[in-house]
Write a structure and sequence with these properties.
210 residues; alpha/beta; five-stranded mixed β-sheet; 5 strands
Length: 210
C-alpha cells in the first residue's frame, strides 16, 4: 500500500514536494559536514590563552611597550657676543705753523712762511742786517737785505692787498712794533713778499711795541 494512497491528488503533489525538499536538504547537510569536518582549528575566544593540538599552552606575545619619552637635549644657548666698543676717532691734529693755508694757534707763526725783504732807509750802517737777524731769529723767512734810496718818515711793513702778504705784514709789524700798510707806487712791481723799509726809529722800538 502506497504512502500517499487514500490522499487526494493535490495532497499527493504537496507530499512529493516536501519529500524532494527534504532530500535536497539532506544532501546539502552532508556536503557541509564533509567539507568542514577536516578543519581542526577552532576560533579562540578573546581573553583566553590559545593551546596547541597537544595541549601545551602557547606563550602569549608580550604587549608592545610604549615608546619611552625621549628627553630633548637641553638647548645650549651661546653667550651673546659683546660688540666691540667703538673707538673714538682720533682728534684732528693741529695745523702746522709756518705753512700756507694752515693757520696754527699762534697767529704770527702761521704766516712766517711768507718771504720778507728788508730795506735800509736810514744812515745807520748795518741796520737792515740787524733787523734781518732779528726777524730770522723769530722764525721769519728773510729772502733779501739791501738799502733803499729816498726818505721815509718811519719803519713800515708793506704788502700787496688781497694776498698772503697782508696778514704776514700785519703779524710782523705787531711783533716788532711798527706799522703795516699797502705797497705804494714805487715798490708795487718789486717781487713777492713783505717789504720792510727801515728808518732810524727801528732801534728805538722793541718786539713788545713799547
Amino acid at each position: 500500500m502506497s504512502l500517499f494512497s487514500g490522499l487526494s491528488r493535490p495532497m499527493k503533489a504537496a507530499g512529493l514536494a516536501l519529500v524532494g525538499v527534504a532530500v535536497i536538504a539532506a544532501v546539502i547537510g552532508g556536503i557541509t559536514l564533509t567539507s568542514g569536518g577536516g578543519d581542526s582549528d577552532t576560533a579562540t575566544p578573546p581573553g583566553t590563552t590559545p593551546t596547541s593540538s597537544d595541549g601545551a599552552t602557547q606563550p602569549s606575545s608580550p604587549a608592545p611597550s610604549s615608546p619611552s619619552a625621549s628627553t630633548p637635549p637641553a638647548s645650549s644657548s651661546a653667550p651673546p657676543s659683546s660688540a666691540p666698543a667703538s673707538s673714538a676717532p682720533p682728534a684732528s691734529q693741529p695745523g702746522q705753523t709756518g705753512q700756507p693755508g694752515q693757520p696754527g694757534g699762534d697767529q704770527q707763526a702761521s704766516h712766517k712762511w711768507v718771504t720778507v725783504r728788508v730795506y735800509n732807509n736810514s744812515t745807520i750802517q748795518g741796520l737792515a742786517e740787524q733787523a734781518a737777524k732779528d726777524f730770522r731769529a723769530s722764525g721769519w723767512n728773510v729772502s733779501e737785505v739791501k738799502g733803499y734810496p729816498g726818505r721815509l718818515p718811519e719803519t713800515v711793513a708793506y704788502y700787496r692787498p688781497g694776498t698772503d702778504e697782508e696778514a704776514a705784514a700785519k703779524a710782523l709789524a705787531l711783533e716788532f712794533g711798527f706799522r703795516a700798510e699797502p705797497r705804494f707806487k714805487e715798490i708795487e712791481n718789486i717781487g713777492p713778499g713783505v717789504i720792510v723799509i727801515l728808518t732810524k726809529d727801528y732801534k728805538t722800538n722793541d718786539k713788545d711795541g713799547s
